[in-house]
């Protein structure tokens, strides 16, 4: 594959990944005239979420399966682990995407360690002998500029702690009911993050900016579903939404073996590369 075609491929792979993980927290805008003038009658989720976040931190790790639809991109199937180290979350997933156009499935692997991402897919090989693409927030290379905004979204797609930390009081319980996950009793919570309130409550600058942009663009609320087992730990976590040019995107993470050892390693240095520049026909990300 030529250098230009290779770089074009990483754009396609990157846009697919961004569509997968950014669309999962969006829902259609709520018209301004539909917002009630009275106080929100829905319960605040801070007590429930504070307990969940505390339990996640205490257990320190979990194994997870991620399944779902990436709209026109196809179906995603992946398995992996999540490891918590204080405020830091590391993860590693391995799986495949299957296009709806009868194309063969494509293998994909993703690791995030200390906030740096490592992506492996045939569509984004930095060099023949370097199967892993490094994605470093704040770096100047093209791959990082394209994909680093998606790293936080990946965390939020698979990790309830990353999603709700700092905005517990800006989250409302739309409804809750008994349910089952893999035959085990759970309680399902339909949760809504109120973006205007979250933008004011968040202390992390990037998180605050993300909610502010959502609120200003008309996304009054972001929708999530969280299933808690009898011990109060997440059994399942789901999000879905309509994504421009991708269609309906839905991802669900199912958890098991909370507290079991979870190894998350950085790929060998000699197998990691970057894309320094965009191909001439592509616009450099801003």
Automatic annotation (TrEMBL):
Record flagged with keyword Cell division: no
Entry keyword Signal = yes
Gene3D superfamilies (alphabetical): 2.50.20.20
SUPFAM superfamilies recorded: Prokaryotic lipoproteins and lipoprotein localization factors
Coiled-coil annotated residue ranges, if any: none
Q: Where is this region: Disordered?
A: 265-286
Q: Which residues form the signal peptide?
A: 1-26
* Protein name as annotated: LppX_LprAFG lipoprotein
Q: What is the lineage of its organism?
A: Bacteria, Bacillati, Actinomycetota, Actinomycetes, Pseudonocardiales
């Amino acid at each position: 594959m030529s250098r230009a075609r290779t770089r074009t491929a990483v754009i396609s792979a990157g846009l697919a990944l961004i569509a997968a993980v950014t669309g999962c927290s969006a829902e259609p805008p709520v018209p301004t005239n539909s917002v009630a003038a009275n106080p929100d009658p829905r319960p605040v989720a801070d007590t429930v979420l504070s307990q969940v976040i505390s339990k996640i931190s205490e257990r320190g790790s979990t194994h997870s399966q991620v399944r779902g639809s990436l709209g026109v991109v196809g179906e995603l199937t992946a398995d992996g682990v999540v490891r918590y180290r204080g405020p830091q979350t590391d993860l590693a997933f391995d799986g495949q995407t299957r296009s709806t156009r009868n194309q063969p499935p494509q293998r994909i692997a993703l690791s995030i360690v200390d906030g740096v991402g490592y992506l492996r897919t045939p569509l984004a090989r930095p060099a023949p002998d370097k199967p892993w693409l490094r994605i470093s927030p704040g770096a100047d290379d093209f791959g990082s500029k394209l994909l680093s905004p998606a790293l936080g979204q990946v965390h939020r797609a698979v990790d309830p702690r990353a999603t709700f930390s700092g905005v517990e009081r800006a989250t409302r319980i739309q409804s809750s009911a008994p349910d089952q996950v893999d035959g085990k009793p759970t309680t399902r919570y339909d949760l809504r993050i109120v973006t205007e309130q979250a933008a004011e409550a968040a202390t992390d600058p990037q998180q605050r900016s993300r909610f502010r942009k959502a609120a200003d663009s008309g996304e009054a609320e972001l929708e999530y579903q969280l299933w808690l087992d009898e011990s109060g730990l997440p059994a399942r976590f789901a999000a879905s939404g309509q994504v421009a040019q991708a269609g309906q995107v839905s991802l669900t993470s199912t958890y098991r073996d909370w507290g079991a050892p979870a190894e998350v390693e950085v790929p060998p240095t000699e197998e990691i590369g970057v894309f320094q520049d965009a191909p001439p026909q592509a616009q450099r990300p801003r």
